[in-house]
Amino acid sequence: MNRAETCRRGKRTSRAGIREVAAAAGVSITTVSDALNGKGRLPDATRRHVREVADRLGYRPSAAARTLRTGKSGLIGLTVTTYGDEPFTFTEFPYFAEMARAATSSALARGYALVILPATSRHDVWSNVTLDGTVVIDPSDHDPVVTELVRQGLPVVSDGRPAGSLPVTAWVDNDHEAAVTGILDHLATAGARRIGLLTGTTTDTYTHLSTTAYLNWCALVGQDPVYEAYPAHDPCAGAVAADRLLARPDRPDAVYGLFDPNGTDLLAAARRYGLRVPDDLLLVCCSESSVYANTEPPITTLSLKPRRIGTAVVQLLIDAIEGVETDQPVEQVVPTELIVRTSSQRWESRATVSPPLLTRAR
Amino acid sequence: MNRAETCRRGKRTSRAGIREVAAAAGVSITTVSDALNGKGRLPDATRRHVREVADRLGYRPSAAARTLRTGKSGLIGLTVTTYGDEPFTFTEFPYFAEMARAATSSALARGYALVILPATSRHDVWSNVTLDGTVVIDPSDHDPVVTELVRQGLPVVSDGRPAGSLPVTAWVDNDHEAAVTGILDHLATAGARRIGLLTGTTTDTYTHLSTTAYLNWCALVGQDPVYEAYPAHDPCAGAVAADRLLARPDRPDAVYGLFDPNGTDLLAAARRYGLRVPDDLLLVCCSESSVYANTEPPITTLSLKPRRIGTAVVQLLIDAIEGVETDQPVEQVVPTELIVRTSSQRWESRATVSPPLLTRAR
DNA sequence: CCCAGCGAGAGGCACGTTTCTGCACGGCGG
DNA sequence: CCGCCGTGCAGAAACGTGCCTCTCGCTGGG
């Protein structure tokens, strides 16, 4: 009987339980709950006493029980749509890494933790965890996971404006058209006569919007488009595409690369063809990597500000989780930053600069 | 009364509950649970019937309730010890990104999801989620978080051998001494007379073991150590340290850089001083980045195989969670891979190669 | 003097599972 | 004919919280 009581009281639990605290403090379970959560109307003396006893016993409330009761888990899903075969292109580019890092930080600052989940609809995993909401990076058109989540009533915020009629709660993105147009103007101002583009074959909105902006700009200024597309998830394909671009008979005298590794690839290809940068070839690429500050020559990069995007996405999501639910998707545009380095300055670059936010690197 | 019944039956629940399934299928709750989990002794006809009804109703079991009942959440924590002020050096280097990606993949393959958590002991966040175990990257000496977790009886597996007497369940690491010794031998074979080291000021075991191995090697071959140390989390400091190393009166004719960005930094510094690579300076750095395949010249890198490490760490952790608990920490050593490129081959490199696994890049 | 009002806290139900125990029933050996 | 056993399933007790409701004692106004 003593055995039975021992079993019932404190056996397999890791020495914590609200009942033990209540018994030790000589109050009821309700009082403990209220004291620790600051909920009820209790004198400060009782509050302190309960907190003290709880600390002394090393009491940790059970997250599972709280989640079951309240319906809130404090967990946010983080998903990136896969490009290739790998389940995670995650952190393939520094962009994703930075974005995820910022998102994690600001989620934690507000008491939430991030759960990394696959974009593939492995139902068992998705339903094995109670989420309060989800961040989706670059959702593809009519993403089945997103629609499923929204159907369940969960807030979904996407990094990158949703393609098609994807019913997300909110989204954050750059103004990719303006960014590309700004870069092309910048290159033209620096003396480029024929600007090429290194782009991707994937169907995400970033690639699509950027390419379209390029084509529109070309049509506007009357230049024939010169571009090569390759599967962005394959690093070798990038080097090959860079080489092809510079091997063309209508070789461009300036190139913008949409993806992070394009800078080194283009630089290597330029060396192979004896092209000097920036004298014979102007170079800009979209990257968050700091390596381009120390290449020879340093390469001008466009930063999409993934830290700001990650932060904004999480703030919007948690606002949606905790606050009033707006009926319309909230849209937020983060400005890009063009970091001008030697590779895009053919002549002494005077103060003539172009639309997006411009920063002068030393 | 009808109102009350409606409330009790199916009001705020998102149209799923084991009771509804049981009622719809005309069986008991027990039967539904057993049928879906393959547990009890039921004829296949009943199993199929229940599964069918559950699918039709779109039934999703509540993860919170299951966790509360079973004590298992299917969640694994992922933590990296912070170096600087930032809460997350996470994904600062491609190493972490790759490792995290591999860990996430293999965890998902076994039905677990990863939760990113801060190394700082923010108790509220850590205790807000029920973990089955934790992966710790580069735990520092006497890490308070780790000891707390172990005290709670949770399995903890670390990437990087634990410093001091940290009581982890298991750990996975490279043989850093052998790797450094191998590289130094490789450089010496290529003709280096005075090999320098670019290292860090942090106290993690990777930096410590590598530096010690370097000093030991120097003592062995009778070379004066030539090295510069800098805080690894600061990219600018890396460039400055690289410059200092090549500006010394006892300038080395070969350098090994312990951190990912060291390659470009050293290359830029070499250019500033008019040193040709590999003719005047041999270069190797530890990196997982593919940019070094296309720099001018391509740089020899040491890969720590973060994908294999991430996979191994998760396998060990899940084995510990599900399987028998061994009393001794399980240790696992992952071989490194030296990817030899132009920067470390002064003469026609004959087949003389050194200890660790060697791969010849084109 | 009596009762409304209020402060302080106790009791108990519900959240949705899993799982232990146990009941009914039919076949079968003794 | 009776008890026994294996099959097929139902009942109900947890798991640890949060919160709603209710009690109890005390006080001030009518």
What this model shows, in words?
Chains A, B: One of its GO terms (molecular function) is transcription cis-regulatory region binding. Chains A, B: Keywords: DNA-binding, Transcription, Transcription regulation. The structure is a homodimer of 362-residue chains. Chain A is an alpha/beta fold. Chain A folds into 3 domains: 58 residues, 434 Repressor (Amino-terminal Domain), CATH 1.10.260.40; 129 residues, Response regulator (Rossmann fold, 3-Layer(aba) Sandwich); 152 residues, 3-Layer(aba) Sandwich (Rossmann fold). Chain A has 13 helices and 13 strands. In chain A, the strands form 2 sheets. A 7-stranded mixed sheet of chain A has the order 7-6-8-9-10-12-13, sandwiched between helices. In chain A, strands 2-1-3-4-5-11 form a 6-stranded parallel sheet, sandwiched between helices. In chain A, helix 9 packs across helix 10. Chain A is elongated, with a radius of gyration of 27 Å. The N terminus of chain A is likely disordered. At the A-B interface, helix 5, helix 6, strand 2 and helix 12 of A face helix 5, helix 6, strand 2 and helix 12 of B. The structure holds a DNA duplex (30 and 30 nucleotides).
Brief descriptors of the model:
alpha/beta, 6-stranded parallel sheet, Rossmann fold, disordered N terminus, homodimer, DNA-binding, 434 Repressor (Amino-terminal Domain)
Q: Helices, strands, pairings?
A:
2 copies of one chain form a homodimer.
Chain A: H1 2-10, H2 18-25, H3 29-37, H4 44-57, H5 63-70, E1 75-80, H6 94-109, E2 113-116, H7 123-126, E3 133-137, H8 144-151, E4 156-159, E5 170-174, H9 176-189, E6 195-200, H10 205-221, E7 226-230, H11 235-247, E8 254-257, H12 262-272, E9 282-286, E10 300-303, H13 306-322, E11 330-334, E12 337-340, E13 357-360
Parallel strand pairs in A: 1-2, 1-3, 3-4, 4-5, 5-11, 6-7, 6-8, 8-9, 9-10, 12-13
Antiparallel strand pairs in A: 10-12
Helix pairs in contact in A: 2-3, 2-4, 3-4, 6-13, 9-10, 11-12
Chain A binds a DNA duplex (30 and 30 nucleotides) through helix 3 and helix 5.
